[in-house]
């Protein structure tokens, strides 16, 4: 028997008895009595004692653990149930109170004449709490002051606030008026009324105006990239680099008859979209030459928008009806993941930083995220207590010293590993780029999603979302919204 020191959260327990030739469960039972952490939730690490997390069937008799050895405990304690409060029945709440409490499905938007491109995109953006907070700040008088963009941001803030308490579909009349005044292309008409528009262009317009009114939004969605240009015909010419800012990544879709490049998955299209060949004048060769343009991610956002490049312009010089060309849609199926890993697309210094934590996780040292997910799956989400740090402060400090002096991006944790989880999708249905119908799909909790088809709202699961890859006449993903895993979020 030895007496060890157990560190749990900020508490330290000294002289805890550990019988090396006894069962591990006996030691865990002792810790449960000291900390209140159930045995099933206990994750134990000991540098030099065992590798990774301690298993219940481990044999510690030959571990060499001696008196005073420090053991780290991860896990959350059981909490005493809160005093019972008077019950409030749903039927006693007003319609607005029921909506605010989530007792009824959220309201949709009324289609005001081919505004499905806007309705679907706004439903996804409404699910971003930091954006909501920035809009409220502008509406309360903070931000860039008067101007068209401020008016735009205030109209959007008030539209979202109205949606929060609505029990019936909301006509976004005020915001549509502001949008069409600020961006005349969305006011284009034909003989049948207002024309269908592009959801990606709507997202771009919202981003421009809201970032002009509140700089915080650029940190939430902005992507800093490094562009390298290399002459493929002259090795003596040094490559040039420059920095740029984007508000989304593009999945370049190519395929069909006669095309040698087949894109079947999102990561393939992203790679293709970040590499291209361009022709420009070479000073060294004194003629035009082919350059390879490569993009890499330097700073990552908390929220990542990805566009599937399904629409393109096709020249039709022999067409009497469309001599200038037509806008076409690529129907090819392109699958996308529930969790997107952007590590392969990052710049080398950012990869070097993230690789430290990715390697540590692979070695079994960082297991907090998986443990937390496992606990939640086991129905233990009601357990309280202070959340356990995955690694202690000393280990984090030591790891930070070994990293390059870069950070992943604003709002991201120090141990961000490059993984984003899907929370919103805008789909397009139909074979014509300037027609068809847009729908928004927004994650609620776990496997539950809501489908916003203008004023009609219904529930679906994740399986339905991952089937939106295209390939036929069904809804297919056009914009995908991801959020960083491991970052802190708060309710809108």
TrEMBL record:
Family matches, as SMART domains: UBQ (SM00213)
Top EC class for this record: hydrolase
Protein name from the UniProt record: Ubiquitin carboxyl-terminal hydrolase
Pfam families in the cross-refs: ubiquitin, UCH
A GO biological-process term: regulation of proteasomal protein catabolic process
Domain Ubiquitin-like: 2-74
Family from the record: Belongs to the peptidase C19 family.
Entry superkingdom: Eukaryota
E.C. numbers: 3.4.19.12
Alphabetical keyword list: Hydrolase, Protease, Thiol protease, Ubl conjugation pathway
Catalyzed chemical reaction(s): Thiol-dependent hydrolysis of ester, thioester, amide, peptide and isopeptide bonds formed by the C-terminal Gly of ubiquitin (a 76-residue protein attached to proteins as an intracellular targeting signal)
Entry annotated with the keyword Hydrolase: yes
InterPro entries in the cross-refs: Papain-like_cys_pep_sf, Peptidase_C19_UCH, Ubiquitin-like_dom, Ubiquitin-like_domsf, UBP14-like, USP, USP_CS
UniProt entry tagged with the keyword Hydrolase: yes
GO molecular function: cysteine-type deubiquitinase activity; proteasome binding
Residue ranges constituting the USP domain according to the UniProt record: 107-485
